[in-house]
From TrEMBL:
Protein name: Glyoxalase family protein
Gene3D superfamilies named in the record: 2,3-Dihydroxybiphenyl 1,2-Dioxygenase, domain 1
Stretches assigned to the Cyclic nucleotide-binding domain: 77-138
Coiled coil regions, renumbered to chain: none
Length: 309
């Protein structure tokens, strides 16, 4: 069993429109945009990062806004819901806020002893705000949401699978332990950075998901540094997983592998962080380009749509 995984690092999804995506996460949810860069493989598309003040591991939601992308179709083999931690007693504030801003609320419920408010993002993304007592992580206070109701970071993610057996085995190998079962959903938990739970739902007869706008592309797990990442990579490969080489993503190093249930997992380092090319006070303001795309700056600045803050 691995002991280097520290919870979630980030969750990366796809969107249809950059301005709409930016407005939802910064104006509606009150997160900070901590980086404005481009997709490594498709530099004509933004890669936008939202999180806490510094983009701490376990707080960062990232998006590829592909213009004209079709909407995804929910199903199995995907992250079905991303869970955010908010202070206990704050759901009333969020219900009023969402009603005022026209956010699609799916309902309020109690799940594994935690009150949650389920809602949709602008592309039909599946989200929930989960009341968590005494989450020590500080919300971003430079946005429109007061600290007393602010998002602390992720609580975790929910996976929807046709057969959860092999993925459950993988999670145990990664250091997660089965915490509870309820209504066909199994919760796995780890003592990590606060983004500590993975809920696995089994729907044996459901159709496979089709990725598109509103779909999660991959979920990333945090390790402290590159040495820990290499240990994880070797252990996964020794177990039979096909893991990519280490890839420099500028703000972290990453490895990727496909899970038995079809979800793409990443393991990302906490180093070097989002302040490697911007000071903390100005995170997410300037367009930052990967080194291999720096020569494209004049063209990209003309092609990429303006994002108004």
């Amino acid at each position: 069993m691995l002991n280097d995984i520290k919870g979630l690092h980030h969750v990366t999804s796809m969107a249809a429109e950059a301005q709409q995506n930016n407005d939802f996460f910064t104006h509606t949810l009150g997160l900070r945009r901590v980086k404005k860069t481009v997709n490594f493989d498709a530099p004509h598309v933004y890669h936008l990062y939202y999180g806490d003040e510094t983009g701490s591991a376990g707080t960062v939601m990232t998006y590829f806004p592909f213009p004209h992308i079709r909407r995804g179709r929910p199903g199995t083999g995907e992250v079905s819901e991303t869970l955010f931690s908010v202070p206990r007693g704050s759901l009333g504030y969020w219900k009023d806020r969402f009603a005022a801003q026209g956010v699609g609320v799916l309902g309020e419920e109690e799940h594994f002893g935690e009150r949650r408010l389920r809602f949709q993002g602008p592309d039909g993304d599946g989200f929930a705000l989960v009341e968590v007592a005494d989450d020590p992580r500080a919300p971003w206070t430079g946005g429109p949401v007061p600290a007393a109701e602010g998002v602390h970071g992720f609580r975790g993610v929910s996976l929807r699978l046709r057969d959860a057996g092999a993925t459950a085995e993988l999670l145990r190998f990664m250091g997660y332990q089965e915490a509870e079962r309820h209504g066909g959903i199994t919760r796995f938990a780890i003592n990590g950075n606060g983004a500590d739970v993975i809920d696995v739902e089994t729907l044996a007869e459901a159709e496979p998901a089709r990725q598109g706008a509103g779909s999660v592309h991959h979920v990333a797990f945090a390790v402290e540094n590159r040495e820990a990442q290499l240990r994880v990579r070797k252990a996964l490969m020794d177990t039979g997983y096909n893991v990519t080489p280490v890839i420099d993503r500028d703000y972290f190093w990453a490895i990727y592998f496909r899970t038995p249930g079809g979800v793409l997992f990443e393991v990302a380092t906490n180093e070097p962080g989002f302040d490697r090319d911007e000071d903390t006070a100005h995170l997410g303001q300037a367009l930052k380009l990967p080194r291999q795309h720096a020569h494209l700056r004049p063209r990209l600045e003309q092609m990429l749509p303006e994002i108004r803050d």
